[in-house]
Specification:
single chain; Rossmann fold; 2 domains; five-stranded parallel beta sheet; 52% helix
Length: 325
């Protein structure tokens, strides 16, 4: 775990800059009316928002740390605090009706705490009308309310929204921190190291891979692609069955293709993606030139574009596997 104390009982790993920014604001009594937590998915933005909320309303806070024991902290632990609201996308979109309802709730004082905390997750998913409605709230913030907006760093949000919030940057975690988080969640250490590497420093993404059994399919695909005894003309059945397993990832298929891209990029820099354990698992016997590896990356990018156009998943996977051989 990080040497810097956690903001509260959430035990957040890494994100030292975010911790320092909030700690200084809280110590100086200058907490803004709105934060924008921006960074990659799955690196702790939501967890940190919960920590901020707990610390602000803790009744026995020490510095920037919530005690985790007072009545307010106990309610945060049980996810039953009346002055902590979370607005999430519905079917991938935050709708204007949600923002209008929020504005109505903000017109009333907090139930029992000095400050009501509202977390709006994935604000990059807002349509313009919802964003404009939220902008009105940010322009005239109701007293005793703190809004925390979270957004994925690669996604665009309205500049007028971000300019009215104090930005708090979040970054990818180190492989060691990500591995430690996964082990703490009960994942075996070797698998945790693999997931940490594949997720590129995103514990949330790593947990997604683990739950979907994506890594098992990934291992099988890489094993077949590395096997010099597999020939596309002869082993059509093998590739078709594997394509079916890939297509069964459904909504997680784009993430799965991302794993294949990470693997190929690592081959480009001659660094095995799983270290020495990978050599034992896969015993790679095929070798490709840099030109061939670039061509395979292009094949995956074409597959990603086809999926974005709602092409048939099975067909996309079949064409891709034959192209990667």
């Amino acid at each position: 775990m990080s040497d810097t104390p956690s903001i509260c009982f959430t035990g957040l790993y890494g994100q030292e800059k975010a911790k320092r920014l909030f700690s200084r604001s809280l110590a100086a009594g200058r907490v803004p009316h709105a934060y924008l937590f921006r960074g990659p998915d799955g690196v702790g933005k939501r967890l940190f928002a919960q920590g901020v909320a707990a610390a602000i309303n803790c009744r026995e806070r020490l510095g920037a740390m919530a005690c985790g024991k007072c009545s307010s902290c106990r309610k945060f632990r049980s996810q039953n605090h009346p002055d902590f609201l979370v607005i999430r996308p519905v079917k991938g979109v935050i709708k204007i009706e949600q923002i209008r309802q929020l504005a109505k709730e903000l017109s009333y004082p907090p139930f029992e705490s000095e400050t009501r905390i509202v977390v709006l997750e994935d604000v990059h998913s807002m349509r313009r009308e919802a964003a404009n409605s939220l902008l009105k709230v940010l322009e005239e913030p109701p007293p005793n309310n703190l809004l925390i907006l979270t957004a994925e760093s690669s996604q665009e949000i309205l500049a007028t929204l971000s300019s009215r919030c104090q930005a708090v940057p979040f970054t990818q975690l180190s492989t060691s921190d990500t591995t430690a988080i996964l082990v703490a969640h009960g994942i075996e250490s070797e698998a945790a190291r693999l997931l940490a590497r594949l997720s590129e420093g995103s514990p949330g993404r790593a947990m997604l891979f683990h739950k979907s059994e994506m890594v098992g399919v990934w291992r099988e695909v890489v094993g077949v692609l590395h096997n010099p005894e597999i020939y596309p003309d002869r082993d059509v059945g093998v590739l078709l069955r594997l394509a079916e397993k890939m297509a069964a990832q459904k909504d997680d298929l784009p993430a799965f293709l991302g794993l294949l891209k990470i693997w190929l990029r690592d081959l480009l820099v001659t660094t095995p993606i799983t270290g020495e354990a990978a050599k034992d698992d896969f015993n790679p016997r095929k070798s490709w030139s840099s030109g061939e590896l670039f061509a395979k990356l292009q094949a995956i990018r074409r597959a990603e574009r086809e999926l974005a156009r709602n092409c048939n998943r099975n067909l996309v996977c079949e064409v891709l596997l034959f192209g990667l051989q």
